[in-house]
């Protein structure tokens, strides 16, 4: 009987020790689950940011020095901090031809021309949207007027009182004593002369004020 009492007392003492050692305070299970979910989301975002290639993210704006060769860019600055000046039309993009490690970077523009741009200038990764803008056809002449475009009339189709190219028989620009020189509506020559000066070709207007 004494042995049974001693065993019962020892068992109760052991159970009390277990309850005191592994006692868990009262917590809100929903808040714990939310904290665990937020921590897992933050960790996954950190992993994604570490493995993220910013040069492949379309719309990222950064200096050209931070980009790689072969990247398509648009909205390019000409001078650092000036703002985007080049490649801003719909559907256009430029390509980096030279690794931007030096002061200047070689970029091919949509026209095919290659230009050296300061690597401190910023640009946007990707191509400008709406590439089908140039293929859009206007349905009628009034739609062009809605866009603010006024009609363009050739000078040879006018009368002599309206334009120096007007008048004459047929399509002739030789009105009066002007000869064959193309002229502006105000009578000033608009053709250019290319001359070889000191071994260089120099272009300037024929009209000198």
UniProtKB/TrEMBL annotation:
GO cellular component terms attached to this protein's record: mitochondrial large ribosomal subunit
PROSITE patterns hit by this protein: RIBOSOMAL_L2 (PS00467)
UniProt keyword list: Mitochondrion, Ribonucleoprotein, Ribosomal protein
Region (Disordered): 157-185
Domain of life: Eukaryota
Transmembrane segments: none
Main location: mitochondrion
Protein name, as recorded: 50S ribosomal protein L2
Annotated source species: Hibiscus syriacus (Rose of Sharon)
